[in-house]
Amino acid sequence: MNKRMLGGLVTAAVLGTVMSSAMARVYTDSDGNRMECTTQTVQTKGNHPIAGPVVGAVIGGVVGNQIGGGSGKDIATGVGAAGGAIAGQQVNKNRVESGTTTQEVCRRIG
Questions:
Q1: pLDDT confidence of 10, banded at 50, 70, 90?
Q2: Residue 86 carries which DSSP code?
Q3: Higher per-residue pLDDT: 10 or 33
Q4: Which residues lie closer than 8 Å to 1 by C-beta, 6 or more apart?
Q5: What does the buried/exposed string (b/e) look like for 46-64 if buried means 16 or more CB atoms within 10 Å of the residue's CB?
Q6: Does residue 39 carry a pLDDT above 60?
């Protein structure tokens, strides 16, 4: 590794340290403890565990209700609702929504 590349890496490391420490907030809490707080970005995964099965059951029930007649219609509605709920649960498992949020993390120092 040549000197120019090493100098660039050291500069980047120092600037990264300065940047991250510049983002920290230090204060003394009501108990006299010195606290350092930083804002961190956190990955989130959105998941509504009940929405998929409920929507699936409703749609499956409506579709099942269109089939058959008499007591067969009731059975088809129940089977459609159950099948829709299972399908909705699978959709929930396969669905990945992600985003980011920020949170403040504090730790006691000194």
A1: very low
A2: H
A3: 33
A4: none
A5: eeeeeebbebbbebbbeeb
A6: yes
Residues in the chain: 110
Per-residue pLDDT tens digits for 56-96:
888 888 888 888 777 888 888 888 889 888 888 888 777 75
For position 17, what pLDDT does the model report? Answer: 39
The full 3-state SS of 8-41, as one line of letters, equals HHHHHHHHHHHHHHHCCEEEECCCCCEEEEEEEE
Contacts of 32-36 spanning 24+ positions with Cβ under 8 A: 33/108, 34/108, 34/109, 34/110, 35/106, 35/107, 35/108, 35/109, 36/106, 36/107, 36/109
CB contact at 8 A, 45 and 95: no
For the chain, domain boundaries? 1-43+103-110, 48-94
